[in-house]
Amino acid sequence: MTDLVLRPSVRNSAIRSRVVGVAVFIAIMLVLPTIIGGLPGLIFGVAFSTVIIAPIAALLLRSRVVVTPTAITVRGMLLQRRKDRATAASVVRAMLVVPRTGLVDTVFVLDAKKRPLLRINGNIYRTADLDRLVQHLGLPTAAVQHPVTVPQLESMHPGIVSWVEANPFRVGCVGAGIAVVVILVLASVITAVTL
């Protein structure tokens, strides 16, 4: 069995739109400061553009999915997750509705107890590459036939995502409650100190 290596593709519409958006932004950041500030403006524009370009370039250059006869490895910009291929028992493939991102083709590799081993975010890979990945793994596959939110996917496949991700409303309420408590404590401390 040969190895399978998937790399990000600029042919992916999500990446292509981001690259175009970043290119337009960088062009503006190079032209406007140069017109307004001359050479110092150009230096600022180049420095600021580098801060924007570096993470995107790192994501595109470092990310990949590698499937060998013994392991499945998913490498991102900073982290790498490796799982023994023998522990992979099934695959769930779903088109997730992600706020502010849109639809994201996602592949979940599960163990025999239906717990997630790996999650492959298809935002940077072509659909055809994800098709090849699922076929190469040769595992029983459950494909969700229509786009779903993360909580909907969690109800269909319990335990496939984290509790935090499956309960965004509760997490938001807890976060808002903590923010209110912190603000009240700070306000009472400031009031006590100023009196």
UniProtKB/TrEMBL annotation:
Alphabetic keyword roster: Membrane, Transmembrane, Transmembrane helix
Transmembrane domains' residue ranges: 19-36, 42-61, 171-193
Protein name, entry field: Uncharacterized protein
Provenance organism: Jiangella asiatica
